[in-house]
Specification:
Bound molecules: uridine-diphosphate-N-acetylglucosamine
Radius of gyration: 22 Å
CATH topology of the largest domain: UDP-n-acetylglucosamine1-carboxyvinyl-transferase, Chain
Helix content: 25-40%
Structural class: alpha+beta
Distance between the termini: 8 Å
Strand order of the largest sheet: 21-22-1-23-24
CATH class of the largest domain: Alpha Beta
CATH superfamily of the largest domain: Enolpyruvate transferase domain
Number of domains: 2
Strand content: 15-25%
CATH architecture of the largest domain: Alpha-beta prism
Length: 454
C-alpha cells in the first residue's frame, strides 16, 4: 500500500536469489511511470481542489513523495493504484531533511509551492548516486521569474521579491535541457502573471504528461514536447482526474532482459514512440520487434554488439544505459557505450567484470568485448538502474546470484521479481527474519509479510 509509513528496516535484510540461464516467455503489465507520478504529485500542490491520479505505481519513491506532501498538510487517500490528493489546507514550512533525503524529485515541489504561496524552503535533496546533480537551472529560472532564492546551510529558500504578490512571466533559456528544471519552471510559470517562454526545454514524455495534467487543471501551456515551451500564466488552477502514462524505462528494462536471455515477451501497456531509440538499438543488435497498438513484443536469439550514446529524449535514455550494458556484455563483438548525461553512472561495470565481462572505462565511455556467458555471484546494486542491470546479468548467468541493495530497486520497479517470475524466471526474494540471521524463504508473491511497496 502506498503512502502509509511503515517500518522499512526489512529493506536492509533482504536480497534476490536468482538462478540464471532460464528463458522468459509471456506478457508483462507495465506500471505507471515513476518519474511522471512524482512530478504530478508535486503539481497537485498548485490547486486547492482535489486531484485524482490513476495508474500510480506502488514504489518507495512515491511513498516518500506522499510523505513529503503529508508533511505539508496534504490529505492523501489511496486505493490500489489510485491516489486522491487534497492540497486545500497546506501550511508552507521547511521540509525536514529526513523526508527529502535521497529523493531528487522532492525538490520539484519548489516551483509549485513558490508560485501558489509565495515562498518555499526545501533542503538539497540528493538522489541516486550517479553524479553531482546540481540545481542551478532550477534556481536561475525561478530568479528569472522574479523570485529571491538563497541557499542557506543546504536549504534552498525561495520567496517572492518584496511587495510582489506573484511571479512574472519571463524568457528563460536553459543551459542544458534538464528534465527537473523544465518541470519546476513549468509549474512555477503556470500561476505567474503573463507569458513565460522556456527555450532548450527538456522533451521527455513525463514533461508532456505534466503539461497535459496542468492543462486539464486550467493551465495554458503550449508546445510541450518541443524545445520551446510557452506558458501563459492563469490566476487559478482546478482539480482534475489524470492517468499516469506507462513507464517507458520499466518497459525498456524488461525488453532488454528478454534480449539478454534469448526470449520472447510482450510488454503492455506502453506508448511505443516513447521507446523509439531503444527499440532501434534492440533491432540493430538482432532482436525482432513487433509493435501492435499499445504493446511491444520482442523475439531475441543471438545478440550482436552495437554502440550507444545516451542523450536527452528522444535520444537513448540514460536510465537504460546500465541495463543495455548488461546486454552488451554478453553480445557478440565489441561495443562502445557513452554516458553523456551523468558523470558517475557506470558503477555496475565493476560487478560485470567480476562476473567475467570484459569492460574498460575511459572517462564516460565503456568499451565492451562481449563474452559468451557470465558467472553468478553476490551482487550489490548501488543505484536504481544499476540494480536492474545486475538482475539482468544474473538472469543470464551460470550458477546462482544473490542481489543485495534492494532498497534501490524498490524505489523504481513495482513488483519487479514478481513480474519476472510470471515470465518464468527463477527469482526469489529472501528475507533475514531473526537475530540469528537465519534466512527464511518466501515464495515470491506469496509472502505473508506486508511489503507495503510491492
Ligand atoms: C530526471 C529523472 C531521471 C533521469 C534524468 C535524465 C526524475 C525524478 N528523474 O532527473 O530518472 O535520469 O531526468 O533523463 O524525473 N543539470 C544541471 N543543472 C541543473 C539540473 C540538471 O547542470 O539545475 C544537469 C545534471 O547534472 C545532468 C543533466 O543536467 O547532467 C540532466 O539532469 P536532469 O535532466 O535535471 O535530471 P533530473 O531531472 O534530476
Amino acid at each position: 500500500m502506498v503512502c502509509e509509513s511503515s517500518n522499512k528496516s526489512y529493506l536492509k535484510s533482504q536480497h534476490l536469489k536468482i538462478i540464471g540461464q532460464n528463458t522468459l516467455r509471456g506478457k508483462v503489465r507495465i506500471s505507471g511511470a515513476k518519474n511522471s507520478a512524482l512530478v504530478l504529485l508535486a503539481a497537485s500542490l498548485l490547486t486547492d481542489e482535489k486531484i485524482t491520479l490513476d495508474n500510480v505505481p506502488l514504489l518507495t519513491d512515491i511513498e516518500k513523495m506522499g510523505n513529503i506532501l503529508k508533511n505539508l498538510g496534504v490529505k492523501l487517500h489511496n486505493k490500489d493504484h489510485q491516489l486522491i490528493i487534497d492540497s486545500k489546507n497546506i501550511s508552507v514550512q521547511e521540509l525536514p531533511y529526513e523526508l527529502v533525503n535521497g529523493l531528487r524529485a522532492s525538490f520539484f515541489c519548489i516551483g509549485a509551492l513558490l508560485t501558489r504561496f509565495g515562498e518555499a524552503s526545501i533542503p538539497l535533496p540528493g538522489g541516486c548516486n550517479i553524479g553531482e546533480r546540481p540545481i542551478n537551472e532550477h534556481i536561475n529560472g525561478l530568479r528569472a521569474l522574479g523570485a529571491e532564492v538563497i541557499i542557506d546551510r543546504d536549504v534552498v529558500k525561495a520567496k517572492l521579491v518584496e511587495k510582489k504578490s506573484k511571479l512574472f512571466g519571463a524568457n528563460i533559456r536553459l543551459n542544458c535541457p534538464s528534465v527537473g528544471a523544465t518541470e519546476t519552471l513549468i509549474m512555477a510559470a503556470s500561476l505567474a502573471e503573463g507569458r513565460t517562454v522556456i527555450k532548450n526545454a527538456a522533451r521527455e514524455p513525463e514533461i508532456q504528461d505534466l503539461c497535459q495534467m496542468l492543462n486539464k487543471m486550467g493551465a495554458k501551456i503550449y508546445d510541450s514536447g518541443k524545445e520551446k515551451i510557452i506558458i501563459d500564466g492563469v490566476p487559478k488552477l482546478h482539480g482534475c482526474t489524470h492517468k499516469v502514462i506507462p513507464d517507458r524505462i520499466e518497459a525498456g528494462t524488461f525488453l532488454i532482459a528478454a534480449a539478454a536471455t534469448s526470449s520472447s515477451i510482450t510488454v503492455s501497456p506502453i506508448i511505443p514512440n516513447h521507446l523509439e531509440a531503444v527499440l532501434n538499438k534492440l533491432e540493430e543488435s538482432g532482436s525482432k520487434i513487433i509493435i501492435k497498438g499499445n504493446s511491444i513484443s520482442i523475439k531475441s536469439n543471438k545478440i550482436k554488439a552495437v554502440d550507444i550514446k545516451t542523450a536527452p529524449f528522444p535520444g537513448f535514455p540514460t536510465d537504460l544505459q546500465a541495463p543495455f550494458m548488461a546486454l552488451m556484455s554478453i553480445a557478440k563483438g565489441r561495443s562502445k557505450i557513452t554516458e553523456t548525461i551523468f558523470e558517475n553512472r557506470m558503477t555496475h561495470v565493476n560487478f560485470l567484470n567480476q562476473m567475467g565481462a570484459s569492460i574498460t572505462v575511459d572517462n564516460n565511455t565503456a568499451n565492451i568485448t562481449g563474452v559468451n556467458k557470465l558467472k553468478g555471484m553476490n551482487l550489490v546494486g548501488s543505484d536504481l538502474r544499476s540494480s536492474a542491470a545486475l538482475i539482468i546479468v544474473a538472469l543470464t548467468s551460470r550458477n546462482t546470484s544473490y542481489v543485495y541493495g534492494l532498497h534501490h530497486l524498490d524505489r523504481g520497479y513495482e513488483s519487479f521479481e514478481t513480474k519476472l517470475v510470471k515470465l518464468g524466471a527463477r527469482v526469489k526474494r529472501e528475507y533475514i527474519v531473526d537475530s540469528r540471521d537465519q534466512i527464511k524463504n518466501f515464495a515470491t508473491g506469496n509472502s505473508d509479510i506486508d511489503l507495503n511497496v510491492a
